[in-house]
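Translate sequence into structure tokens.
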Amino acid sequence: MQKPVKRSTISVIILICIALGIRLYASRSGIVESSYTSGIYPYISAFLRIVFGRLPFSAGDVLYSFLFLFTLWKTTQWVKRRRKEKRSWIPSKTNLLKILRFSLLLYIVFNLMWGLNYNRKGIHYQMNFEPEQYSQAELVHINNLLLEKVNQCKAALIQQNIGYPSTKELFAKTNSAFTQAAKKYPFLQYTHPSVKSSLFNFTGNYFGFSGYYNPFTGEAQVNTDVPPFLQPYINCHEIAHQLGYAKENEASFAGYIVATASGDSLFMYSAYFDLFLYANRNLYSADSVAAKDFLALLHPAVKEDIATLKAYYKKYENPAEPLFTWVYGKYLEANNQPLGMTTYSEVVADVIAYYKKYGEIGG
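Result follows.
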């Protein structure tokens, strides 16, 4: 065996051992919660936000752009060499080892910097309740409660003539919402803000993403092209990812608690609007007539927002979006979320369980 190949093989074996050690550690959710999520991770997260949060642009988006272009360039060069030299299209052992080594390194860094949070006990443990299978009657009841909330909040926004602030102002209001929520739930304390408008808004519109968290730079990215009434809740969701709520339903629930506890009508409406739509879609699967009846009872201005949202989705419909959704669903399944994209709607179960435990549907 040639020395370069031998060294690469040894390094890959070492990385495999480290990756297996991470999987073994991740299998103990209690240990992950106490030693990683509540121990090491807050320092990692705060450090990244301090370093990259000061930048006026998304460093994570720049990093991803560079990696994409670099990968595209390397692939193009590889294809050209194969065609010119008429060599086999099967990668050499050296190249295969390089690819495997890079993949293992990426996996290890991803988990150490954030990914282990997929295996924590989570917000249900922190708030002392456990989601369970809910009945159709409970789903109907939560639809009714959310209907009342979303109508009340929209009426308040209209009565007070409250408009939507600039992106910068909205980010500042989001920080204030977390400060308010942390008074009741200290584990939601958020310092060193790092929330930014994504450089990929145009792409995000076509791929169907409204925001994402970059685990390598600690930045929360928000697609600021989406309808403004969604953005307050999206901001809260992405910051929840920063705080270590990796699973989508947990980030949604943490963001929901923050938004509804904020006392800010914009945030409350945004959260109740989103949750009502989730709950109503879930009800539609069981009883379409009842779901339509609830939709008919919405405030006319809420109906207008739903029409705006449908128009937004219709405008950017394209053949690539289902593929992107499928790929992301597989990513979620690989990270301890077996329901894939359906995980997002599981936040309804969280709200129902929270209501049964505490007798309220908001923070």
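Note: The two ends are 62 Å apart (CA to CA).
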